[in-house]
Specification:
This protein folds into 3 domains: 138 residues, no CATH class; 97 residues, no CATH class; 88 residues, TolA/TonB C-terminal domain, CATH 3.30.2420. The protein is flat, with a radius of gyration of 28 Å. Helix content is 17%, strand content 26%. It has 7 helices and 19 strands. The protein is of the alpha+beta class and 386 residues long.
């Protein structure tokens, strides 16, 4: 399960010590402390580096308040940093007991990090200040859990010499830049929705190309990527095969010779590529342009959701919305349950997970043409009290 993320960026400025002392005109002014920005992030320890949670755990430990408040401006290890000016990041693993208090804190550097000498200093602060909602077992009993806390102290002498206060701001870290289309966003079907929204540009076609949402396909689906010959890519390559190499080749020939994509000069050179879905129809092919929602996910129909909410009500007194997820098993039932947004009630969370695993009926995913898929992957469910 993806872990619960609590992230905050806190901009901080300050001067070292008291006000500037009066100095003789020829004396050099003391150097101002470097500008400090502390980026804090916390999340339950996941299986990528730390052990996965036990199967009987239905809710991970979660911070009671904003982790950004666990460290203050005066906690910044300025003196230690000024001596080395090499290490700015620290990753700490917190052991959270059944009471929600931190019982142990130790450095847990990732592969690209080194443990700074001031990590133990931060551990002592977190043991005193951090408070959690404890993890929960499927029988309603609290459990011990791990929580990963990362801090990045960004120091810059140049920014320190700027004038005026810095406005304190709260929010998530900036989004990463759009991926290049070589990494490979167009190597499978459906194409990445993020790539389509942020990078791709659709060409003009000599023949009409459908938008998703038409009638169900009658023939096999063939996913292709067409490209401007000037891009260095083949004019057409297959990323979703029909299983028939000759039919795949006919689909590419149709895309190149009949659709004849025209690339506008305004399109940036490296991204003159576009995905299409082709299906045999008559003497040609039916062509559908890409859609970030081409595959509909597992879902719960409104009538089924109302039934589950009614079953949950007796256990939901005083509860809020609860959201949970689990991986589907071969029998079409979730093999587990993890609450990623608690209702605020242990009893309500336990009851919701029991319904999720024993009662919920999920509708299989389908593509944009109504063709159903298998009950695989992750299922999500949200229950709402009256």
């Amino acid at each position: 399960m993806r872990g619960i993320v609590a992230g905050c960026v806190l901009g901080l400025t300050g001067l070292a010590g008291s006000a500037w002392a009066q100095a003789a005109p020829e004396a050099a002014k003391p150097e101002r402390e470097p500008f400090r920005q502390i980026a804090l992030r916390g999340f339950p320890a996941g299986p990528s580096q730390w052990p996965a949670p036990p199967a009987e755990m239905i809710r991970r430990a979660a911070a009671k308040d904003d982790p950004a408040g666990w460290l203050k401006e005066t906690d910044a290890p300025v003196a230690a940093w000024l001596k080395t000016e090499t290490i700015e990041n620290v990753t700490l693993e917190l052991a959270v007991g059944t009471s929600g208090r931190v019982t142990e804190c130790k450095p847990a550097p990732r592969s690209w990090e080194r443990t700074p000498p001031w990590a133990d200093q931060l551990c002592a602060l977190l043991i005193r200040r951090a408070a959690f909602i404890p993890a929960l077992r499927e029988d309603g009993q609290p459990m011990a859990d791990r929580f990963v806390f990362t801090a990045n102290f960004q120091f810059s002498r140049n920014m320190a010499r700027g004038s005026g206060p810095l406005v304190v701001s709260y929010g998530l870290s900036p989004a990463p830049p759009p991926p290049g289309d070589t990494n490979p966003q167009l190597m499978s079907w459906p194409p990445s929705g993020y790539w389509l929204r942020s990078v791709a540009r659709e060409p003009a076609f000599a023949l009409p190309v459908e938008r998703p949402g038409g009638a169900a396909l009658t023939g096999p689906a063939i996913g292709v990527v067409i490209a401007d010959p000037k891009s260095g890519d083949p004019e057409c390559r297959v990323v979703l095969s029909s299983g028939d190499a000759k039919l795949d080749q006919k689909a590419c020939d149709f895309a190149r010779k009949k659709l004849k994509p025209q690339w506008a000069d305004t399109v940036r050179f490296p991204v003159r590529r576009w995905p299409l879905l082709l299906s045999p129809e008559g003497k040609g092919f039916r062509a559908i342009t890409a859609d970030e929602n081409a595959i509909r996910r597992l879902r719960v129909e409104p009538a089924e959701l109302a039934r589950l909410n009614a079953l949950w009500q007796p256990s939901a007194a005083g509860a809020k919305v609860v959201r949970m997820a689990g991986r589907m098993g071969p029998d079409g039932r979730p093999t587990g349950c993890e609450v990623f947004e608690s209702s605020g009630s242990d009893a309500a969370d336990v009851a919701a997970c029991r319904l999720f695993r024993s009662e919920a009926r999920f509708t299989p995913p389908s593509d944009a043409f109504g063709q159903p898929g298998k009950l695989t992957g992750w299922a999500n469910l949200q229950l709402t009290p009256p």
